[in-house]
């Protein structure tokens, strides 16, 4: 959507681009991020083709359909995307980055009102920002997936225009679609209500003083084949072991077990 | 309610369709239809349930004409003053939603539930058609196979008739293993020359008392009137090999009525002892997607039309009753429970795991 009357001289290799929103705010954006908005990319490439060369001035690309609040979010999301030219990380770095991104995404969506989400989708579509569109589309779909009809109506602000008897009939006809939702909610609740214990495995610890005592029934002394090896070659806890058993009865049925 | 968040109105056709296509569960689309009339119209007019069904089960593309054109499932009756196009779309929506939910998500390899009849049997019950449902060649110390009676004319065919595990089943492949007589000199394999399959339904309900049932297993020739075959496969050549041979149907076939017939054409192996030709089958297997309970169909009449039905068994609802203090066995109770829960958890912000931070206290 180019507006030639407003077009100052394009530059060939600036690292930043200026975007102007519907409420006349100017945003300076790194080219790498701005290029993810394919509409902007197209505009930029169209401008590059024209003959006018300039030094030190940047093109201001108008986005009359995008409000500044929305663009802020889209730019912020675009920045957090993995860069295509980034060096491949090792597995651990990748995992940390993934977790960070997840956390960032959750934070982004957390206080978003439905109307704002629609604005974001609309803008991402206008800008042809594929990753953003995919992300926010999924965020919206998540508010329908596995959610009850009441939730969907409330969240999207939809008025129920069915007569009660019509709705009742529909729910009976498709009973299978309405049963699951309550069960899913129960499942989520059960997770909170369940009591769980976790064992934290600390790993290998060196330099513990005093050293743990070897049980009296463990073998010690010289290895019979090679007297350079002292027993025990390998050792593991053997007393006061906590193991799993069903609630009803312990493994032996006695008050205490080996 | 000002419909401020109604994305279907605000975002336009393409994006809205893309969003709704992200839903994997047909229950989500069905519930979307219950949100409001405009949402229902959107889902139905854009055939979203059909798109989801074909996404889940691509092989169903060969079956859509049975639903839409042949009008065999949930046949549409146009009321006076109603729009036939709309009625058809509504019907398609219902059928595809039921299919998406009711067909088994994983392809099943054992879609036969029981044998109905064999055209002839040698040494019943040792060589009964029942044995073809056992995948093993031998059970304990006894060989497990069905054998026809011997014939001097190798062109006499045999027919095995089976009942499928559901009255509605999408069949993709049928597998047959001929029997190798490992106890006979030379280890002969009593395959047939070729095999052909028919799928269809019974004209009258197949309710037979035990006496008749057993007779049919041994030796029965069906009259043309008993079954209506909606599908006849091409002839597949059978290799004379002791292997489970796979006969993939050219297209997935929808069997309404749940009856399969295996036609064994042409005999190849003579038994040395009596010089007669026999056909023996070790195993028959049907691969496909049945409509799994609690989903089922009701055959309407002998025209082959049927309607879909759902018989809930409510194991889920029992856990609801345990968790709540009262009984929650009526649907409206479950709804009030849901609304109460949503009120407890609060609503409005978009964050995904709103259950994350506030464990509800009930």
UniProtKB/TrEMBL annotation, chain A:
It comes from the Eukaryota. Residues 16-80 form the SKP1 component POZ domain. Belongs to the SKP1 family. This is SKP1 component POZ domain-containing protein. Pfam families: Skp1, Skp1_POZ. Residues 137-177 form the SKP1 component dimerisation domain. It comes from Quercus lobata. GO terms for molecular function: serine-type endopeptidase activity. Pathway: Protein modification; protein ubiquitination.
Automatic annotation (TrEMBL), chain B:
It comes from the Eukaryota. Coiled coil: none annotated. Residues 14-55 form the F-box domain. InterPro entries: At4g00755-like, F-box-like_dom_sf, F-box_dom. It holds the Pfam family F-box-like. Signal peptide: none annotated. PANTHER family: F-BOX DOMAIN CONTAINING PROTEIN, EXPRESSED, F-BOX DOMAIN-CONTAINING PROTEIN. This is F-box domain-containing protein.
């Amino acid at each position: 959507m180019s507006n030639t009357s407003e077009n100052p001289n394009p530059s060939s290799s600036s690292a930043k681009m200026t975007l102007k929103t519907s409420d006349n705010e100017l945003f300076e954006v790194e080219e790498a991020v701005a290029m993810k908005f394919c509409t902007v990319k197209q505009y930029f490439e169209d401008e590059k083709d024209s003959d006018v060369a300039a030094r030190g001035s940047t093109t201001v690309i108008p986005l009359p359909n995008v409000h500044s609040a929305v663009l802020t979010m889209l730019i912020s999301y675009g920045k957090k995307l993995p860069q295509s030219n980034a060096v491949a990380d090792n597995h651990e770095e990748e995992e940390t980055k993934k977790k960070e991104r997840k956390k960032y995404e959750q934070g982004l969506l957390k206080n978003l009102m439905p109307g704002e989400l629609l604005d974001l989708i609309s803008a991402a579509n206008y800008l042809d920002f594929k990753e953003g569109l995919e992300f926010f589309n999924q965020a919206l779909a998540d508010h329908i997936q596995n959610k009850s009809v009441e939730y969907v109506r409330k969240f999207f602000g939809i008025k129920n225009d069915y007569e009660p008897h019509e709705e009742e009939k529909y729910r009976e006809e498709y009973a299978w679609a309405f049963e699951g939702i309550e069960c899913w909610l129960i499942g989520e609740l059960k997770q909170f209500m369940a009591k769980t214990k976790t064992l934290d495995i600390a790993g290998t610890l060196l330099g513990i003083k005093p050293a743990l005592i070897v049980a009296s029934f463990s073998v010690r002394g010289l290895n019979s084949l090679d007297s350079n090896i002292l027993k025990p070659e390998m050792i593991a806890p053997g007393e006061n072991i906590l193991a799993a058993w069903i609630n009803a009865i312990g493994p032996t049925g006695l008050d205490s077990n080996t | 309610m000002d419909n401020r968040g109604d994305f279907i109105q605000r975002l336009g056709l393409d994006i809205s369709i893309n969003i709704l296509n992200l839903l994997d569960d047909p229950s989500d689309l069905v519930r979307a239809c219950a949100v409001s009339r405009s949402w229902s119209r959107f889902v139905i007019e854009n055939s979203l349930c059909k798109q989801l069904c074909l996404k889940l089960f691509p092989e169903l593309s060969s079956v859509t004409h049975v639903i839409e054109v042949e009008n065999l499932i949930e046949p549409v009756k146009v009321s006076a003053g109603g729009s036939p196009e709309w009625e058809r779309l509504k019907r398609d929506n219902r059928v595809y939603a039921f299919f998406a939910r009711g067909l088994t998500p994983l392809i099943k390899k054992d879609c036969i539930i029981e044998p109905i009849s064999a055209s002839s049997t040698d040494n019943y019950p040792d060589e009964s058609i029942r044995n073809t449902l056992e995948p093993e060649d031998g059970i304990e110390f006894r060989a497990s196979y069905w054998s026809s009676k011997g014939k001097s004319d190798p062109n006499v065919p045999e027919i095995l008739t089976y009942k499928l595990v559901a009255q509605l089943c999408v069949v993709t492949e049928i597998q047959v293993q001929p029997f190798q007589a490992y106890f006979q000199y030379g280890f002969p394999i009593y395959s047939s020359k070729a095999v052909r399959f028919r799928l269809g339904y019974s004209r009258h309900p197949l309710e037979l008392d035990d006496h008749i049932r057993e007779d049919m297993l041994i030796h029965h020739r069906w009259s043309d009137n008993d079954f209506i075959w909606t599908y006849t496969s091409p002839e597949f050549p059978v290799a004379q090999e002791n292997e489970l041979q796979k006969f993939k149907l050219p297209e997935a076939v929808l069997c309404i009525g749940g009856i399969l017939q295996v036609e064994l054409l042409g005999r190849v192996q003579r038994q040395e002892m009596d010089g007669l030709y026999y056909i023996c089958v070790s195993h028959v297997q049907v691969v496909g997607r049945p409509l799994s309970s609690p989903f089922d169909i009701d055959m309407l009449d002998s025209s082959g039309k049927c309607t879909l039905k759902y018989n809930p068994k409510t194991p889920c609802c029992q856990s609801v009753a345990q968790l709540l203090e009262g009984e929650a066995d009526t649907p409206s109770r479950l709804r009030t429970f849901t609304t109460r829960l949503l009120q407890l958890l609060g609503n409005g912000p978009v964050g995904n795991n709103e259950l994350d931070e506030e464990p509800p206290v009930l």
